[in-house]
Amino acid sequence: MNITSTTRINEFSKYTILNILGMMGLSCYILADTFFVSKALGAVGLTALNLAIPAYNFIHGTGLMLGMGGATRWSILKASGSDRGDAVFTTAFRLTVILSLGFSALGLLGSAPLARLLGADEITFEMTRTYLRILLLFSPLFMMNDLLLCFTRNDGAPGLAMKAMLAGSFSNILMDYIFMFPLQLGIFGAVLATGFAPAISMMVLSPHLLKKCNTFHLADGSSSQIPVIASIGLPSLVAEVSSGAVIIAFNIIILGLEGNIGVAAYGVVANLSLVVVSIYTGLSQGVQPLLSRSYGHGDQTAVNAFLLYALATSLALSLLIYGGLFLGADPVVGIFNSEGNPQLQAMAIDGLRLYFTACPFVGTNLVLAVYLTCTDKARIAGVLSMLRGFLLILPLAFLMAAMWKMTGLWLAFPVTELAVFLLSIYFMKRH
């Protein structure tokens, strides 16, 4: 192994390991809520939480679209010597403010009908509505945190980005406990803790934002950058929004098959899925600055090397994750089944073992989407993201559930990811 290869591996490790840890911490916002809600409010609280979670996917997805799209474009311009980077950051910043205020308005004025739309019944309505309202009101903090994390990581500070994400997550866990147990604020306390977490994260980022070494600044924006940012960030948006859409569709199907207990069981699987997918998201986002910079410099050898490292890492992680979930399904589900409900326990164990057979395909698909985006093939990445996010999984979920009930529903996710993986290989060979 020559020095260049060693340097690349060290740089790859630095960016991806730090970002994986940070994204896992970020995903624990919701997982901590799941744990504490299950302990404090039982299956009803767990059901209400799972009905409301798709709103977080839409908020986070929009923030990532602007953050990943803007930061990727900014990195390419910076590597090529262009002086238009500040216009990209300013445009992404303004869009973040505008769109996040739209989400807040929805929380203020439309949380009740939204709760009904998401499937809340008389038992779960009040908890679902409360969670939705507060979550949407905190949208500006969530989305601004997404934007600043992406730009800070691309500005040569992946370690600080990781520290910020972990600080936000750990503060959320601490506040979850305080608000839900000593203060006994119930579901309101859970969502309040989640809402405050991105503020802690941005406080950790603030030294870099104020230092002279920071190379992105507010300046004159450019409306011409909006479609570029949106097209580059589309796969990130689709990945998150599709998670929300899938949760909504699965909730509707499961309510018809197994009722509220079934939705609670799916809540365990879905929230663990957020953490698992965040690992692959952390890997793909971590390698993104390296791919963008190498492509901007015209160094195809480095681009290929970083892609290979990411794919190999994804496969290794998949073997570890699925092995751990398969062997540890019973105790993992038991952590969230505070009432010891045997129906919930059995259903969630089956779900974990079937649903997460998708792991190797999810990781590969996310890495390839980022690679295509960073090499000016954002349109192909967008098509693949739409296929895995909406166009395949939703009809497959309804079809397979009609044919094989819950087993078919659990398998709809891995079948979709496998199909998109095969399509990804086809497009990679063509281009």
Major sheet description: none
Structural class: mainly alpha
Fraction of residues in helix: over 70%
* Molecular shape: globular
Distance between the termini: 29 Å
Poorly predicted runs of 5 or more residues: none
| Helix-strand sequence | HHHHHHHHHHHHHH
Query: Helical segment tally?
Result: 14
- Kindly state the number of beta strands: 0
Instruction: Provide the residue-averaged pLDDT.
Output: 88
Tell me what the structure shows.
With 431 residues, the chain is mainly α. It has one domain. It has 14 helices and no strands. It has helices at residues 3-79, 85-117, 125-137, 139-154, 158-180, 186-210, 225-257, 259-297, 300-327, 329-336, 342-355, 359-374, 378-391, 393-430. Helix 8 (259-297) runs antiparallel to helix 9. The protein is globular.
In terms of topology, how is this protein built?
Elements: H1 3-79, H2 85-117, H3 125-137, H4 139-154, H5 158-180, H6 186-210, H7 225-257, H8 259-297, H9 300-327, H10 329-336, H11 342-355, H12 359-374, H13 378-391, H14 393-430
Helix pairs in contact: 1-2, 1-3, 1-4, 1-5, 1-6, 1-7, 1-8, 1-9, 2-3, 2-4, 3-6, 4-5, 4-6, 5-6, 7-8, 7-13, 7-14, 8-9, 8-11, 8-12, 9-12, 10-11, 11-14, 12-13, 12-14, 13-14
Describe the structure concisely for a colleague:
It contains 14 helices and no strands. It is mostly helical. α3 (125-137) runs parallel beside α6 and α5 (158-180) packs antiparallel against α6 (186-210).
